[in-house]
Amino acid sequence: MIPAPFDYLAPETLDEAVRALAENGERAKLLAGGHSLLPMMKLRLVNPAVLIDLRRVPGLRGVRERGGKLVIGALTTHCELESSELALQKCPLLCQTARAIGDVQVRNCGTIGGSLSHADPAADWPAAILALGGELALKGPAGERSLAAAEFFLGPMATAAEPAEIMTEIRVPVFSGRCGSAYLKVPQPASGFAIVGIAVWLRLGRNNRCEDIGIGVTGLAAKPFRAAAVEKSLRGSSLSPKLIEESAASVANGIDPLEDLHASAEFRAHLARVYAARAIAKAARSASQRR
Amino acid sequence: MTEARKKRVSITVNGTVHTEEIEPRLLLVHFIRDVAGLTGTHIGCETSICGACTVMVDNRAVKSCTVLAVQLDGAEVTTIEGLGQAERLHPLQEAFWNCHGLQCGYCTPGMILAAHQLLLRNPRPTEDEIRHALDGNLCRCTGYQHIVDAVQQAARSMRPKAPAARARATGVRKPKIQNRKSKI
Amino acid sequence: MPVSKLVGAKIKRREDPKLLCGLGQYVDDVKLPGMCHVALVRSPYAHAKITKIDAEAARRHPGVVAVVTGAEVKDEIGTLPVSGGNETLRVPRHYVLAVDKVCYAGEGVAAVVAEDLYTARDAADLIQVEYEPLPVVSDPEKALAPGAPVIHPEWPDNVAFRSDLKHGNLARAFRDADTVVKQRLVHQRLAPIAIEPRGVVARYLAAEKELTVWSSTQIPHMLKGHLSQMLKLPEDQVRVIAPEVGGGFGSKLNVYAEEGLLAYLALKLNRPVKWIEARRENIRATIHGRGQVGEVEAAVKNDGTILGLQYKVIADIGAYHQLFTPAIPPFTGLMLSGCYKIPAISIEVTGVFTNKMATDAYRGAGRPEATYVIERIVDRVARELGLDPVKVRKKNFPAPKEFPFKTATGVTYDSGNYERTLNRALALAGYNKLRADQKRLRSRARYLGIGISTYVEICAMGPGMWEYGKVEVEPGGRVRVLSGASPHGQGQRTSFAQIVADELGVALDDVTVTHGDTAVVPKGIGTFGSRATAVGGIAVYQAAEKVKEKARAIASHLLEVDPDDLVFAGGKFTVKGVPKKGLTIQQIAERAQDKKNLPPGMKPGLAADVTFEPSNYTFPFGAHVCVVEVEPQTGKITINKYVAVDDCGKVINPLLVDGQLQGGIVQGLGQALHEEVIYDEDGQLRTGSLMEYALPRASGLPRLQLARTETPSPVNPLGIKGVGEAGTIGSTPAIVNAVIDALAPFGVTHIDMPLTAEKIWRACRQAKATAQAQR
To answer: Could you say which residues from 728 to 767 on chain C have a Cβ atom under 8 Å away from some Cβ of chain B?
Structure first.
């Protein structure tokens, strides 16, 4: 219930935060909303000597449109995304995913950047950001770089961010044309984390032909991934229920599914197939309703 | 283990400013209970699940066991003690009383504040919306039905005369809540 | 009985305003000058020798007041008490802190006392304990197998006790049967999870020789007695206070290690000490419920008549007994006949030690297991014989005129009308239409299930267990009620005041009910087993009656009329035919202080106390109907409808009764669908926090439809039966029966609880595969 002692820093600028992180190395942890980190610290599973709170760093919050992309500050809370008008119009998958996370209180505090950086294999955001082909902006001592979401997740609680890098922004494409999306998840009954979560974004052309599609999968494997084979078999085709089901059936191919108290590997893979088909169909329905 | 450097924070709890030197690891719930001396905020788990420790921070419901007090320097916190008094209950407290929305009372302060959050954002919730809004709060006594009744009653009694028009005028937006039928 | 005004009315609870405002005082809210905080070091191993404890670093840590280990305190504090059980009972020594070896993961090994909570927690990490792991046995069936590691070497095996019950000619029943239906049933372990974890504050005032222990307990008086024994203090030097108690469900009907330890530390250190259980400790070191694995066999005729029932069950005890551990499984045997006339019944219970936390009373305590066994087997019988489950139930109900009804297990059901509650529930649910819907939907590959459960339970513990009540009309006219039935959310301050206010004809606001402090209430037993109102409520009712009779005698003396010429109404005795001549009960109380106003020989004051012990248990009953839709592809269950018709005898406050039922039903639903305490083969708890142990939440629940019949109990003057556990007992089998009914087209006949999505998916897939193989 009680974290071990630590020193607390609340830098006022991003550079200062990067410097503090670089100076303290492994001893330090970044604090955003705290809803991934603090529970682990309370159980003393993580005991940083220094906590660097990003709350005073300006410019890390909010949703904006910039250069044809939707730009989300890393410290934007799930709740802010859930209720963002801009996100609802330009990229509703963000709202759909945000509202599936945890509970109201968790969504009021937890941040998208915190969740992505924590890289829990059962977190919701990775599925959506992968489906959208999002980019993550990272700032480190060597400057800023951006990384495709697909390159970011390396494994459970492991990412491609360097030890002194701070995620500043998440950039996703703006929906245009007949786009549709869906996030469906099977929540673990106690924690609400995803046993399986499937995020789908797609764009329809004529005759309900799928012009483009992105499918992100969380919960199924040690790291979230993009279901490239499923996407490939649907891209360019007309989305019939039969095709959707056949394609979705391969979502777990070549994947080593996680296994825990709440679902065996076999059941997880099965759920992923069922929910992938449902999420694709749902996204297609919503796209077909758009003009 | 080294002694961590203490930090000075100013946190307003129910209108009273508390300026204290605290250990950075001090949890908000302990700040409220031990520093501010308000024991209506309860601790029921340590994993941000049960919601018994829910308080409002700058009008957002948060689980005070998963926030460091030091993160809230300058913030305004409202606890159950700040919502209403025994002689002048808040409509939510009144409705929980009328509907027998509590038994042992331990989850009640957090439950009421979670309901308060809902009604701030959505003055006309459906039963399904109420149930989802309370998913971050566990009650082992009531089976939730009387709690849902209480939130419905409070929503009715708190609603201004022409609620729809008023909500639009003040920009209160009803957040979309996913219409999951059941998670079992 | 008087004409009721308050009894039977929906009265808002008087305890609520302070709770609603956050002003209720729970144990964690008790703050005393100079108070220290205690943190426990608990064993990470399920079974191990303690070879060394190095507490030096912890002792040197700034702010640490003391560190104690099991070896240091074993001669200072008595072992934990056990009640119940028969001559076969084996009671291992259960120290407040482990001595030499640990027998379950979570067992306390050492305790740190520090100036504040954070320091205590830090110092606990500095204690180095060396263990030598021993072979672990966590599965109760494996624990019985030859060659299994023996947990307590003072005995040759892991048997904790045996308890058999045999009545009627079972051999004949099975010989005469057309069919025998068998089923293996698992009642998984559950964690009670009161939202307020346990907590203890202890203070010793040396000059006063008073040890005061604040504990989140359901049984302050029993705890007082046990603490006095454990600490070898005279009872009058021990005071226990149960302040607001944040739920219990049986888990606080106990005497725990921390209660003895904290009392000892307060004495030894001469400083107040506080320990508040963290949730992870709560799931590890507060009792669990259920934990039975059994095999039931029913001998039946083709028309559904049940001739005999046999149940062989292994009860998973855990490493040690807690207070009522051995008393719980026998309740399953007592209630095995359910709502049915079964001439021959046999039950064999074997209690088994395992390297786990103890099981003990959890809401229902033995009866949910019995009801589940009988209600599942009745459904299995119906399926096997191709009969409607309603028909099989009705076929075996005793008729209303057969009450009091004696079962083969030897208990006598006080009163009942089982067919009436069932008919009412079926009508409310629209049973015939539901069956038609089910048929129609099945043809479209949608799987609706209708589950029925008819239950009877044993309540109001009971003969041999009294409760204390006192009523006093104070000189100023206010009525003070003391009760030994210390509640944890039930609302006795309201319901008991209703009873007394009606009896004395005074306003509800003039009555104050006090409980939970052994220095104020001289004796008591506690709130559990749905006994508070049916036993404790009767005690205060009878005390009020005695007060009224004394008042009548005083009025008769003062008004100089014959007592029989006095009429009591509206709180006032008036002389028959002379309505102006009279005295209110308050006026009488005022005068009763002075001996000169009293008849010769009468003692001053207007008070009476009663220790009420019922002549029999009470037997509430009811019928629940649950309607679910199951998706075989994902195993998802949606509850569409839930109807409960319960009969708890006379109702004092319908609002509180509904609250008990709704909470109970949802708790039973939690067992059916989500909850399970899981230990792995190494005895490691896999569901050690609320991130893994799933409780029901507000969403995903149906709106419960409740209705009542009211069959008074003849065993107490108010006809009350009790309602605290009924919902939990009735709901679990209703839901499971509904899900199994839904899956009938797949040939599924049983799935063990909790009915997780994966189990349902597997059962359906298995059935499909079998069907294909047979084709």
So the answer is: none
Instruction: Among B11, B64, B71, B130, pick the best mutation site for testing chain A contact (most A Cβ within 10 A).
Output: B71
CA distance B153 to chain C (A): 15
The answer to whether B14 faces chain C, any CB pair under 8 Å, is no
Structure tokens given for A161: 């961010």
Residue type, A100: A
User: Where do the H-state alpha helices sit in B31-141?
Assistant: 91-98, 108-121, 127-133
Pairing of strands C572-575, C412-413: unpaired
Cα separation, C152 vs A197, in Å, equals 47
**Between β-strands C344-353 and C306-318, what pairing exists: parallel, antiparallel or unpaired?**
parallel
The reply to whether C766 touches chain A by the CB within 8 Å rule is no
What amino acid is encoded at C164 in this protein? D
Give the whole-angstrom CA distance, residue C315 versus residue C291: 6
CB contact under 8 A, B140 and C667: yes
Residue C174 in contact with partner chain B when CB distance is under 8 A: no
CA distance A242 to A277: 10
ipTM of this complex = 0.97
Give every CB contact of residue C411 below 8 A, 6+ residues apart in sequence: C334, C335, C458, C617, C619
Identify residue C29 by its one-letter amino acid code.
D
Cα gap C114→C123, rounded to integer Å: 8
Per-residue model confidence as pLDDT tens digits over C58-93: 999 999 999 999 999 999 999 999 998 899 999 999
pLDDT of residue B178: 41
* Order of all β-strands in the sheet with C479-483: C511-514, C479-483, C467-473, C607-612
The whole-number pLDDT of residue C4 equals 62
CA C170, C173, C175 angle in degrees (round to 5)? 110
* Cis before C754 (ω within 30): yes
Cα–Cα distance measured from residue B125 to residue B131, given in angstroms and rounded to the nearest whole number: 10
Per-residue pLDDT at C1: 42
Residues 6+ apart with CB under 8 A from C326: C82, C84, C85, C86, C89, C160, C161, C317, C351
- What are C775's two structure tokens? 């084709």
In terms of phi and psi (left: phi > 0; alpha: psi -120 to 50; beta: otherwise), the region of A49 is: alpha
Name the pLDDT band for C768 (thresholds 50, 70, 90): confident
Q: Who contacts B62 (Cβ-Cβ below 8 Å, separation ≥6)? A: A105, A108, A109, B28, B54, B55, B56
CB atoms within 10 A of CB C727: 31
Does C491 contact B at CB distance below 8 Å? yes
Q: pLDDT by residue (tens digit) across C729-759?
A: 999 999 999 999 999 999 999 999 999 999 9
